[in-house]
Automatic annotation (TrEMBL):
Entries under PANTHER family matching the protein: CYTOCHROME B_B6 PROTEIN-RELATED, HEME EXPORTER PROTEIN C
Bilayer topology term: Multi-pass membrane protein
NCBIfam families, alphabetized: ccmC (TIGR01191)
The species this protein was found in: Roseicella aquatilis
Pfam families noted in UniProt: Cytochrom_C_asm
Locations listed in the record: Cell inner membrane; Membrane
Membrane-crossing segments per the record: 26-45, 65-86, 98-117, 129-151, 163-183, 203-224
GO annotation terms (biological process): cytochrome complex assembly
Name of this protein: Heme exporter protein C
Gene Ontology CC annotations of this record: plasma membrane
Biological classification of the source: Bacteria, Pseudomonadati, Pseudomonadota, Alphaproteobacteria, Acetobacterales
Protein biosynthesis keyword on record: no
Length: 249
């Protein structure tokens, strides 16, 4: 079992930068190649749905964004817990750089959901449990991104943001199970059902390919932002040290 000291060893900024420098190109190019295959397959080559017609193509963007919005927030909550409990050196920075990306994918989830809802439901928006809980998730992402940047003391901002992230995690089960707990317009899960997926393989496979590509792109973007934040912090520390030496000299 990893103890706090081991976690700190794995989170050493120098080791992180060396590892990230090796992983980043592979992650980025994997995302590019996956999306280069997945998006034409989904948006151009896959057949229209027998009920939804061509509108089903919106779901190739909407569903992966929904998964990333929830999975990313779970990662934010885990990183926040690590930052609060173990004072993980990189956890605060990673969470700080994760929240704007999470807010962006949640916004895309809401926007594409509205585009799909208009022809399917006859309205851009309804205040049902699934849509409302995802909107709350979007505000939680925005709240974290704003809160960690709202204080002159970066450590205090990170701590407040971590507390908000952990409190907001109670919304994740609501998002996931809202269609089962309440009567909503939003359809229940089609891909993750235990008995069998509710989608034909001609739609399921390109959907999963898009999910893989967008997940790789999400990870690559968060990693790149975290690398840049670590390097920026190191540069500022060097500048501060140089200024102190100059004052002493």
């Amino acid at each position: 079992m990893l103890r706090g000291g081991n976690l700190h060893r794995f989170a050493n900024p120098g080791q992180f930068l060396r590892l990230a420098a090796r992983v980043q190109p592979w992650l980025t190019w994997s995302a590019v190649l996956a999306l280069a295959v997945a998006l034409p397959w989904a948006l151009l080559l896959s057949p229209p749905d027998w009920q939804q017609g061509e509108t089903v193509r919106i779901l190739y963007i909407h569903v992966p964004m929904a998964w990333l919005a929830m999975g990313g927030y779970l990662g934010l909550a885990i990183g926040s817990a690590m930052a609060l409990v173990w004072r993980h050196p990189l956890a605060d920075l990673a969470c700080r750089e994760l929240s704007p990306v999470g807010a962006a994918v949640t916004a895309l989830c809401l926007a594409t959901g509205s585009l799909w809802g208009k022809p399917m439901w006859g309205t851009w928006w309804v205040w049902d449990a699934r849509l409302t809980s995802v909107l709350v998730l979007f505000f939680l992402w925005l709240g974290h991104a704003a809160l960690v940047r709202a204080f002159d003391d970066a450590e205090r901002g990170a701590r407040m943001g971590a507390i908000l992230a952990l409190i907001g995690a109670v919304n994740l089960p609501v998002v996931k199970f809202s269609v089962d707990w309440w009567n909503t317009l939003h359809q229940p899960a089609s891909v993750t059902r235990i008995n069998a997926p509710g989608l034909h393989v001609d739609i399921l496979y390109p959907l999963l390919a898009c999910a893989l590509g967008f997940s790789l792109a999400f990870a690559a973007l968060v990693l790149a932002r975290t690398r840049a934040a670590v390097m920026e912090r190191r540069i500022r520390a060097l500048q501060l040290a140089a200024a102190r030496r100059a004052d002493q000299g």
